[in-house]
Design goal:
Helix content is 35%, strand content 13%. It is an alpha/beta fold. It has a domain at 82-130 and 192-402: Phosphatidylinositol (PI) phosphodiesterase (TIM Barrel, Alpha-Beta Barrel), CATH 3.20.20. Helix 1 crosses helix 3 and helix 4 (98-106) runs parallel beside helix 6.
Amino acid sequence: MEAAALSRGSSFIFLVRFLCLIRIPFVLLRVRDITGDRQCAGFIILILVLYIGAAGAGRPLSPLPSKADDDVKKPLQTSRPYNFAHRGANGEFPEETAPAYMKAIKEGADFIEADIQATKDGILVCTHDVNLDDTTDVAEHMEFADRRTMYEVQGVNITGWFVVDFTLEELQSLRAKQRYAFRDQQYNGKFPIITFEEYISIALDADRVVGIYPEIKNPVFVNKHVKWSDGKKLEDRFVEMLQKYGYRGSYMSKEWLKQPCFIQSFAPTSLIYISNLTDLPKIFLIDDVTILTEDTNQTYAEITSDSFLNHIKDYVMGIGPWKDTVVPPKDNYLESATDLVARAHALGLQVHPYTFRNENSFLHFDFHQDPYVEYDYWINKIGIDGLFTDFTGSLHRYQEWTSSVSKM
């Protein structure tokens, strides 16, 4: 019976933690409104607390983020290329939701990655696209029908519902959905958009050291449409949130290893700007060969030139290129690799390419529909330092398997 009680208590605690992430716990604060009795409300909440304390005595409920001693946590692995959970385990759950991040941690991610934008009322949230059309049910919310509009984003006119036109409260009335129709649709409509703060809390509450890899997303667009009363901008708010939760220190420093974090952006001026605000390691993202940088309108050729890499290395510790620019494909077969990785490594820069996806539609024919063959190619032949994947579990299993084989 004692074992059953512990199991029941642990399950209940997990549920409470999960509900905290999706903002349902605030319903508890309204118990008095439902009962119409202050004493009755207090009694109900007291019974709930006592139940958690008694049934879950073997697993104390900690607030988010965890206040547990970091010394007891398993440290970050640094002996092999990093496993970056691209928008969480988004091959299985809708991207950038609490379950996607918690699943990625369970599957062995070294870092969980997120895209950070700002709401109309200046709250930082996790969402990739500037508009909400492809990843939420916003089109089903008739109360927001008049918010559909057109903005110019990086020289392209886009029509839709935009994050910057919604308050946090309005955003969290929406529910996330899977971006790709060929992926599991069963979780559509179940989970809300989460804040930057909630994302951080998920990493800090893990039972081992899990890093974060947030991106300053579309800063030119966000700063044009969202204004803070103190005159600060997205980059300032972004760094302030990291500092609030203790993220600091240069790469591999004691502080960094305790709470690992890479900061990424496609905008070089944002990375240069925050270099005066934090010593956390920064990664310059490099888009496809046809896309200009959003802030400086530089071409791919310009930002991968020796002169630019020599310039940017004073502000960043690595680059994050789209993998098809490192090894370009033709007719879905790989051509010869460029020298980008070698030139970056010669300057002491790490290379974190994106994005690795298990589905056949994303795998080049060279890999024979086998993501393990793709991992092996990039890690052992190209020699990258970490990789962004939608399927954290498969990369973790590959690395565990190959690590065990190498030790035999």
